[in-house]
Amino acid sequence: MNFIKEIKKKAKHILLFIYKLNKQIYDKFHIVEAAMPQGKELQVDLTLLHKKSPKYGDWLIHPCVRYIPNGFAGHKWWMVCTPYPNFNSYYENPVLFYGDGDSFPAKWNFAAIVQEPHKHGYNADGSLYFDGEKLWVLWKEAETANTDALHGHKAIMGKSYDGNLFSSPCVVCNNIDDTNMYLAAPSILEVGNHVKLLAVFTPNSYLPIPNIKKGPRHLSVFDAKIEKENWKCRFEGVFCQDYPKNFDFWHIDTFSYEDKYYCLVTPEAADCVLLGESEDGLHFKFYDKPLLHANGREKTPYTYKVTGLVLDDIFYLIYPMRTKENVVRLYVTQMNFKDLLKRLK
Fold this sequence. Notes:
- This protein has 345 residues and is mostly beta strands.
- Helices cover 14% and strands 45% of the residues.
- It contains 4 helices and 21 strands.
- The strands form 5 sheets. Strands 14, 15, 16, 17 and 18 form a 5-stranded antiparallel beta sheet that branches.
- Mean pLDDT is 85; it is low at 21-29 and 205-214.
């Protein structure tokens, strides 16, 4: 009897070892089919930025790219992103770049530092919006003197840019109750004749938002207006999103195409990109197949907050990615958008 028990015990250990080994092999070599190919590195000229402060380094994350058909301040392409040298959030400040031409720029040039470092706290999650006259840069601000004055830990801040100077920073949207409502990754989406501010909502408790329990992240939506360099944002509610189970919904960007609205999202794990489609700009159904996926890379590629747009039926996806040299650069990949939707479906 003891002999049989020993055999069963050893067999159990062997089976457990085989299971763990198979799982490691599966995790390392399992390939998730992505809808888009890996892209090419963006050529971003950091020379002038480094003249202002070499400490900003050459890591770039949190891109947001917008195309302005009639141009603004002599340029049609604008991008805001945040340097993140060796994960140093002190220099995670929105920096503005521009590009030229009617097609996607081959080179991006430095325009200005939008917000300098604070004495304490940090900035992140830059986003752009052109109101027809001025270019607005929005970002999440955390644990700074500004948010201290608002009696909260985080807020969505903004500055307008006239092509030469920035306005003073203003509060675009403050958390309703910072202990219960954490907003991140703001994005402006024009829905019909209305301007909506969408931000990722992380519920920390059951209150103050009715019927939204602690758990998965969704989108908080505000009806937004700009009055004399100030934003007036009216909270509309938290809208639940339809995304794959166990997906860690985190950073977004939004755009529209042919009377529909689209949302790009990356998880906090920063290892893939999903696309969601919406009829109303509030509720997005996300496709299961990712646009990009890490596919078992030993080091997280750091695909952390992406941006995208459609121009002449071509979809451009701009994303950060860790290189073989262990630095984070910006990349772009492209595809006919209608063909992409067919692949996703």
